[in-house]
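Open question from group meeting: does this chain pack into something compact, or does most of it stay loose? Before anyone orders reagents, we agreed to write out a predicted structure and look at it together. Recording both the input and the output here so the notebook holds the full record.
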Amino acid sequence: MPSFGKDQAFLSKIIKFANPKLILVKFDDQLAAFLYENKTLRLEGIGTFTLDSKVSVPSELEKEIYYPIEGLSFTYNPKCETDEDVITYLVRKLHKIQPLIRSDLESYLSNIRQFINLGKPYTIEGVGTLSKNNQGTFEFTPGNFLPVKEELNPKRENADHNYPVRSQSNAGRVVAVILIVIAALAALGGIGWGVSNLLSKRQVSNNNEQQQGSIDTIPQTGIDTSTPITTAISSSNTPTASGINNATSATDSANYKMIFEITTSKERAHRRTVQLHSYNHNSKYDTTHIGDVVRYRLFLPVRIRPSDSTRVKDSLSIFLGSRVMIEKQ
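Structure tokens returned:
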């Protein structure tokens, strides 16, 4: 039987050059095995192959011997459709999804028709050779049997029909790319979480500043005063309440609350008060109710002249590092 390996390889390169995205997927082994098993093979736009039921297929033990196929006939039919049984068989053997198998098989058969219409015979391994005659129809010459085995990867009559095999190095590259993509996505997720967390903290800080800045003087109505910590120790280095009280007389002075922090956390109010007590400052806190919300106001009680209130307020603001509000008791 004549060999057309060089011609098919050359034309395959022409087809690939004309359409770089075209990938030639071959199904020679599977189609031959289907024909041996079912005795009939219908291919789209080509025709029907029929194998005599009396013909015996060589066994696995005879895999190195190629027997000519006898009892195999072909009927050309350009309107022929591929059997659904062929699709099901390929899905089962190749372990791929049906839409992918159907698409690859259509491309494979289209390539065969293009090859034959260019005037070159095309050999389907294990089935035979198709060519185009002067009348424009396809002629068929039976080929040699391919021994049927589970792997469906026998020795090739035509080297151009060998399937491409993915090397281990290519598989390793694919795994490496997947790992890199996963690492990049994880890094982006971490950066996004960090930015979101930072923005949230800034928003909370801005809200607290707005709440403290919205009050300059606070009226006395609706105030429930409590003094859970009453220890007062004077300090010689800071403007404490006791130091200020000693500098003023009872006739020209008044009692004031120097409010330096407002919080909704009782734990925060208590902790901050204890901290200031450790610095010898007579810090206290009380509560105010706005609707269902309880707010804790941290303050220093002082007795000063009204004319000194601004100076004392500014001094405490600098010392405590926060805005101080004045409330007369």
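Observations to bring back to the group:
The two ends are 116 Å apart (CA to CA).
Residues 117 and 135 are 12 Å apart (CA to CA).
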